[in-house]
Amino acid sequence: MSVSFIRRIASPKKALTTAAVAVATAGMAMTSVSAHAAPTSASSAQAIAHKMIPDAAQYNAFSKIVEHESGWNPSATNSSSGAYGLVQALPASKMSSAGSDWKTNPATQIKWGLDYMNDRYGSPVKAWNFWQANGWY
Fold it and tell me: Which keywords appear in this protein's UniProt record, sorted alphabetically (predicted)?
């Protein structure tokens, strides 16, 4: 938006003050929402997964599934099905087999998801191949 346009609609000082307050308010609101939405950031969940899955091909396949399923948000919930967490377990309580902290601990969710992919498909790479062919795993 050009300054001359702002001058036409309001005094420059008032327009800039209003814009600054709006930006600051939006920034604070976004910060507080994201800080409470997921207790663990996507990058730290990814770092945990990287440690748990050292093979690059297997990690990349696992990462692609998680990105599609939850965007690396350990609190992601599908409102229609009830699927939950990084790997969208259904029912969500299945992840309790990996630990009692399954609702909040990305490492527990990753462990459960990795075990699930290995048991059902043979590996994360094979699970990703299935996901690509079917849009789910």
Answer: Signal
